[in-house]
Amino acid sequence: xxxxxxxxxxxxxxxxxxxxxxxxxxxxxxxxxxxxxxxxxxxxxxxxxxxxxxxxxxxxxxxxxxxxxxxxxxxxxxxxxxxxxxxxxxxxxxxxxxxxxxxxxxxxxxxxxxxxxxxxxxxxxxxxxxxxxxxxxxxxxxxxxxxxxxxxxxxxxxxxxxxxxxxxxxxxxxxxxxxxxxxxxxxxxxxxxxxxxxxxxxxxxxxxxxxxxxxxxxxxxxxxxxxxxxxxxxxxxxxxxxx
Amino acid sequence: xxxxxxxxxxxxxxxxxxxxxxxxxxxxxxxxxxxxxxxxxxxxxxxxxxxxxxxxxxxxxxxxxxxxxxxxxxxxxxxxxxxxxxxxxxxxxxxxxxxxxxxxxxxxxxxxxxxxxxxxxxxxxxxxxxxxxxxxxxxxxxxxxxxxx
Lengths: 243, 149
What we know:
The structure holds 2 protein chains of 2 kinds.
Chain A: E1 2-3, H1 5-13, E2 20-31, E3 37-49, E4 52-56, E5 66-69, E6 73-77, E7 85-90, E8 98-101, H2 105-116, H3 120-145, E9 173-176, H4 216-241
Antiparallel strand pairs in A: 2-3, 2-8, 3-4, 4-5, 6-7, 7-8
Chain B: E1 2-3, H1 5-12, E2 18-25, E3 34-41, E4 44-49, E5 57-60, E6 64-68, E7 73-78, E8 81-89, H2 93-104, H3 108-126
Antiparallel strand pairs in B: 2-3, 2-8, 3-4, 4-5, 6-7, 7-8
């Protein structure tokens, strides 16, 4: 299967920040004739970006040696012969686990934590949760200010909308996901604090509708209950992702 | 560059964010428009021959640019090679717009920016960091500033 390897390698080495990086020893199995195989550990420089784990021969290598796509996998501590070993195991039965060895306890724990939160779904979960929270914060703010203007325009706001105006002058090409970290790549925003502007109607059909509350404390209470439930679910997910 | 192809093939079989049969042209000399099953799963776009179970290829959708070309057509190109375009001709302008919107939001980096934006906004409005209650406010992946490695 083809992959846009040049672009992937570029993503690996460009200066967008990594979510975690460091030296790890990677278990490598070499198969010789007569079914004999040798296990060795190769020290490599690992860089985690999003749901992709890249590894390089050296810290300053120009190109990655390889890539591990971190979807459909779990990260566990590993009773290998080596201390501070952990494994990335794939849901796909029969797939070989990727066994890695850290330099120490703290490094191992940091890697396991970072890798178990690397999946796209996890990020999506957090984004959706914050979207809801922002929507609720806007609503409660509007309610508190008893704004004469209701948020009834129903205008959809996407994160990529750069302007508040009815017609967006978008350039023909909008870059997707390219972060110019130096100059601050935040998408422009509708300002929820202004009573004049409607609360963002976020394009997620599955967001629960918050109960009709005129009173901030009621909203706060309901909000708190939902958070408690979500926290429980999250801890369960984390637990699954860990050991 | 090595990669866990097996896992990528497994990912290609997962439920898609979006899937359709679309005419596609790869940026290779002499290649024409071919009907492909195009499937968006997380930040990968897989493309299959319409009668095959295994994809011909996958595009990682990070640092890419989605451009509206002529009617019904959009293209995907990558930051470091903007002239090399993967072209897609849809059945309708509506389908074309839907794909453009979906692909623009498909990258991990886009989600990260959204998250940082929301976090910031909520903090401004409520004075509280929404990630604190989940114990993840210090996670590198949620930080705005350039992170140390």
